[in-house]
Specification:
This protein is mainly alpha-helical and about 160 residues long. It has a domain of about 100 residues. Helix content is about 60%, strand content about 0%. It has 5 helices and no strands. It is elongated, with a radius of gyration of 28 Å. The mean pLDDT is about 90.
């Protein structure tokens, strides 16, 4: 569906239901972790093509258990592979939702900013003749003030 101006609201009840749904999701995934930057660097990555490789390796391990040393737990490996596939599916759903949330937030923000700019222009114009509007116009105008960093002199060309 092509983008159209968004004219919607989210009731407090619906907002709470969405928050509760997120809480439910997090409650169902208590094993989720937050990795540090160093931890992320040190992990062998599983990109898009890696899932099939990992699943094929799991099948090979399940079908040939006798070739592995006792220290290699094929059942735990299968659990990890199954969880990886499930988390990959969930991550795809979550990424799609996050993308739609971000796009909608951007679109609504653009609409709101356009309307706010109109309000500012009306207030700024009215402040010339209407007592009490000048402080409001100045407050709104702060958004458009550029930082007053001194410009560095250009060095002469050598």
């Amino acid at each position: 569906m092509p983008y159209q101006n968004i004219n919607a609201t989210l009731s407090g009840t619906d907002l709470q239901a969405v928050k509760d749904a997120f809480a439910t999701i997090l409650g169902k995934l208590p094993f989720l972790v937050n990795l540090t930057a160093d931890e992320r660097k040190g992990i062998l990555k599983t990109g898009a093509g890696s899932l099939a490789f990992v699943q094929n390796a799991s099948s090979a391990a399940q079908n040939n258990t006798t070739i592995f040393p006792a220290s290699f737990n094929t059942a735990d490996f299968k659990k990890d592979v199954d969880l990886l596939a499930t988390l990959t599916e969930l991550a795809t759903l979550a990424s799609s939702l996050a993308s739609r949330l971000d796009d909608t937030r951007l679109a609504v923000g653009g609409e709101a900013m356009q309307q706010a700019t109109l309000v500012y222009n009306y207030v700024k114009t009215a402040a010339k003749n209407t007592p009490g509007l000048k402080p409001i116009a100045e407050q709104l105008g702060e958004r458009f003030q550029k930082s007053r960093k001194p410009k560095e002199p250009k060095s002469p060309a050598l």
